[in-house]
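2024-03-11 09:14:02 INFO queue: dequeued item TetR family transcriptional regulator, len=186
2024-03-11 09:14:02 INFO validating residues
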Amino acid sequence: MEQGTGGTFSASQRAILEAALSIVCRSGGMNLTIDAVAAQSGFSKGGVLYNFKSKNLLICGMVRYLTHQFDAEVALARLRHQDTDSPTLSAMIDVTERWLNEQQTVSRAVLVTSVQTPSLIEPFVDLMQGYRTQIAAESADFTRAMVVLSALDGLHFCDAHGVSLMSQDERRAVLNWMRNLLKPKD
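2024-03-11 09:14:37 INFO prediction written
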């Protein structure tokens, strides 16, 4: 395994990544430093650098870690939505709702990465391209599916930039409306 770049992480790497994500969520991406991660994780600076040779590899690890988590949750949620127009897109709605409510680090981590080193978000871009291909194969109405996917992207964008004007209730209503668009026709 390449340290800090693979999809599989050791317990130490997971602890460091969770600390880094906590910093980004709490204080923003500009406060993500190796020193801050060391303090948050309980590892020495050398311990952090042993696991992730540079800040870029740490950020890459964050993106891969989050990408893997998101993908695993979408795969599980797909099982509940086999009767919809797009099981993948329906699952993405559920996972997006939970992540926006509970795990706001995803959008912010991707934003930090894309600003600092755009090529480091390739795992996430590849995952999303794979989802788009699945959605195209599943959906009877590709345009409708792309409207729903674009709306999900917009929710992530607003959350990442801290500019969402929707209340929790409004966002829930929008997500439920999207779900209804994907329900099977009787």
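2024-03-11 09:14:37 INFO annotate: Confidence is low (pLDDT under 50) at residues 1-6.
2024-03-11 09:14:38 INFO item closed
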